[in-house]
Amino acid sequence: MISCSSTGMYYARGQWVPADESAPAALAALGFLAPEVEAAHTGTIAWNILQAHNTSGDPEALKLKFDAMASHDITFVGIVQTARASGLTRFPMPYVLTNCHNSLCAVGGTINEDDHLFGLSAAKKYGGIYVPPHLAVIHQYMREMQAGCGKMILGSDSHTRYGALGTMAIGEGGGELAKQLLGRTYDVARPGVVAVHLTGAPAPGVGPQDVALAIIGAVFKNGYVKNKVMEFVGPGVASLPLEYRSGVDVMTTETTCLSSIWVTDGETEKYLAAHGRAGDYKPLAPAPLAYYDGLVEVELGAVKPMIALPMHPSNVYTIEELNANLADILHKTEEDCAALMGGKVRLDLVSKIENGRLRVDQGVIAGCAGGTYSNICEAAQILAGHGGGNGEYALSVYPSSQPTMMALMKNGALTGLMAGGATVRTAFCGPCFGAGDVPANGALSIRHTTRNFPSREGSKPGSGQIAGVALMDARSIAATTLHGGILTPATEVDYEPHIPAYEFDDSSYKSRVYNGYGKGDYDALLRLGPNIKNWPDIQPLPENLLLKVTSFITDPVTTTDELIPSGETSSYRSNPLGLAEFTLSRKDPEYVGRAKAVQAEEAARAQGKADAELLALLRAVPGCEALEWGEVGMASTIYAVKPGDGSAREQAASCQRVLGAGANIAVEYATKRYRSNLINWGMLPFQLAGPTPFELGDAVLVPGIRARLEQNQLSDIPAWVLGKGGPRPFTLTIAPLTADERQILLDGCLINYYKRG
Q1: Domain with CATH 3.40.1060.10 in the chain
Q2: What whole-number distance in Å separates Cα of residue 574 and Cα of residue 327?
Q3: How far is the CA of 582 from the CAs of 73, 632, 683, in angstroms?
Q4: What φ, ψ does residue 595 adopt, rounded to 5°?
Q5: Distance between start and end Cα atoms, the chain
């Protein structure tokens, strides 16, 4: 079904040639000269788009400027506030502010709607595009209105992916968007490019989520595409309608790749023309000779309906395999979930086996992955006058935009779903992060959404609540609904897939979207609700850094949801100190108290109140015998094995920073975007090899760290664990930083960097 090459690969006039010792002769036999082979890395689609947006003059050290940007209402307030504090005067490119995460305004008083009106006032002041609540989820709007062939788009949501439309899109933390708003660049070393070669065509009943989950299962755990670009090529692309491609593409985020791009063709052209943007089409394809850093081969006809069991999109099985080994697989999943929860609460899945089949409690088709026109059309065809019964099982459907909903109303799909008992909602991302359709304690929800991390369905394990999400395609969710909640792959349903022609009606956008790009009222005032707060003052990096370990996490991977939970906390996204109260609340509830205690110690130190005992420990470090109390800055740190998988939201870093954190220490960082968030908030992204020499509560001195950063000496950084038995030495490293990144860390954060001028 899916295989990954063990070497780089040359794409040579449609043939694959391994990049081994036999490659020169094989390529010469195909008519390629040595200079062409040497330059083969320039033959990818990704290379050409990246270089077209690169302002550095160095093809290996990219400084990118984007064509457009997008944020939603969990992130745009913080981004505008960061840019505003750094000298923002106007939006220099189309910047779309959507309102699809905090759409529900019943919890937390007025604060969600206050954020929305802040966004509208920012669009009017700085010249932006404002999409009101319930009108479109962020990525569907960008597909419909902004993406185009050869473009690059930056978004503050990790699922910013428009590769199927020929756009290289990247999801990043808010600091990177603030840089673009201030005329700066997105700096990154040229990423590797991995080809995803599609052949054949999917069987009826196999949808885009099935293909996506199969790919994620093959490449996530081995890091095959981590921080690389996935480039989709091959004859199988032509068998996939554009929305199907987009459904696969948006899930590439869960592979930890940096971005994605697809070959374009008549399907791409037809989609753009239908949305009134025929001029945004151009053909994109690899050159006759292109070098890729790896090859993922996908035989579409061999893909079967898939399921990703709790609590990660990579925990994948075919539904057929799961049904054949229910007890064993569910028991293993229970044990994995219990370990992830630290044994505090258990998810009972085995008890859901009923007559040898798995009974689920809820179905949801929603968001940028599930709520598309074609997905909902096929779900309606499978149900065709039937429903899930009047028991516990229920199906909810969220079309991804108002134009999508209007088309589904016109063709009768929504009427049929509603007649069968499905509830149809407006465009909303809530089911993806725990703010919509929260199931009962102990329930298992099947969802065509993007993620199934812990608490992504809205439960609170710290309060004894737990539920689980399994990711599936809309077609198999409909088939399961047809059988009253008994897990069923869509390939077991006899139906003829047929997608009625889609007509894009943008009248709702024309009526409600504020389109002010280039038309800012630059002297206007922002509308600031009482919950919208400015960032607190942050100090520059001290000469010597004393870190206290305030959380110690040994899980193989720590997600951004665990660092700062989604769901109910989202109402506080515009209040840095208010949101910080939730930091690590589900993973380490004592963290905030510990971090505040260190912050109080630093405040006392800054006022000259010396801790004689601690100062004696510092002076016991070789070379620090004459160290003065005023020459040390104190901060908290967390240790985690591999933090940062998941969301792009910067709050996973900024919440630690406003609580006084100065660094993270990790074996590795799960994503480039999380590491960038740390840097933009002035937190040193230390890495540690070998055994961990410290424990929770220990103090770690990193002497001379400011000088080392100034001199770009980032390997073998001396550090000392302090203790009454004498200091114990070890070393830290920081992976390469650009000159700008080093200066941001020296200044203490991105805001300080821009204030410094």
Answers
A1: 2-12+41-56+191-302
A2: 45
A3: 18, 28, 19
A4: -65, -40
A5: 54
CATH number of the structural domain 2-12+41-56+191-302: 3.40.1060.10
Q: Which class in CATH covers the domain with range 306-504? A: alpha beta
Q: How far apart are CA 296 and CA 349, in angstroms?
A: 33
Distance in angstroms (rounded) separating the CA atoms of residues 400 and 395: 16
* Phi, psi (deg, nearest 5) at residue 335: -65, -40
Residues in CB range of 165: below 8 A, 6 or more apart: 143, 147, 148, 149, 242, 246, 264, 268, 271, 272
Q: Is the distance from CB of 570 to CB of 579 less than 8 angstroms?
A: no
Closest CA to 116 of 72, 173, 154: 72
CATH architecture of 544-756: Alpha-Beta Barrel (3.20)
Q: How far apart are the C-alpha atoms of 402 and 135, rounded to whole Å?
A: 5
Determine contact, residues 602/539, Cβ cutoff 8 Å. Answer: no
At which residue do the structure tokens 């999409």 appear?
A: 131
The answer, yes or no, to whether the previous bond of 405 is cis (omega within 30 of 0) is no
Report the distance separating Cα 111 and Cα 77, nearest Å: 12
Cα 444 to Cα 333: distance, rounded to the nearest angstrom = 12
What does the pLDDT look like over 348-358, one tens digit per residue? Answer: 999 999 999 99
- In 105-257, the DSSP E strands lie at 129-131, 152-155, 168-171, 186-189, 193-199, 229-233
Cα–Cα distance, 757 to 751 (Å, whole number): 10
Please give the C-alpha separations between residue 452 and each of 138, 447, 543, 583, in angstroms, as whole numbers: 19, 9, 42, 20
449 token code pair:
């959404």
Q: For residue 238, which phi and psi values (nearest 5 degrees)?
A: -65, -20
Strands 129-131 and 514-515: antiparallel
Q: Considering only the top CATH level, what class is 66-184?
A: alpha beta
Distance (Å, rounded) from C-alpha 62 to C-alpha 564? Answer: 31
pLDDT confidence of 696, banded at 50, 70, 90?
very high
Q: H-helix or E-strand containing 98?
A: strand 95-98
Q: How far apart are CA 515 and CA 702, in angstroms?
A: 50
In this prediction the pTM is: 0.90
Q: With H, G, I as helix, E, B as strand and everything else as coil, classify residue 127.
A: coil
- What distances in angstroms separate CA 250 from CA 162, 170, 446, 451, one per listed residue? 7, 11, 18, 11
Stretch (H or E) spanning 183: none
Neighbours of 461 (CB within 10 A): 20
- For residue range 717-744, list pLDDT tens digits in order: 999 999 878 899 999 999 999 999 999 9
14-55 residue pLDDT tens: 999 999 999 999 999 999 999 999 999 999 999 999 999 999
Residue 713: C-alpha distances to residues 108, 545, 669, 702, 706 (Å): 47, 16, 20, 13, 10
Average pLDDT (319-325) is: 96
How far is residue 9's CA from residue 18's CA, in Å, rounded to a whole number? 5
Q: Where is 679: in which H helix or E strand? A: helix 672-680
Return the number of other C-beta atoms located less than 10 Å from residue 167's C-beta.
30
Helices 672-680 & 174-181, crossing angle to 10 degrees? 70
CATH 3.20.19.10 domain position(s) in the chain: 544-756
Residue 676's nearest CA partner among 154, 164, 260 is 154
SS (H, E, C) 556-580: CCEEHHHHCCCHHHHHHCCCHHHHH
Structure tokens at 574: 């515009």
Q: Is 389 exposed, middle or buried (0-12, 13-18, 19+ CB in 10 A)?
A: middle
- With 80 as the cut, is the pLDDT of residue 205 above it? yes
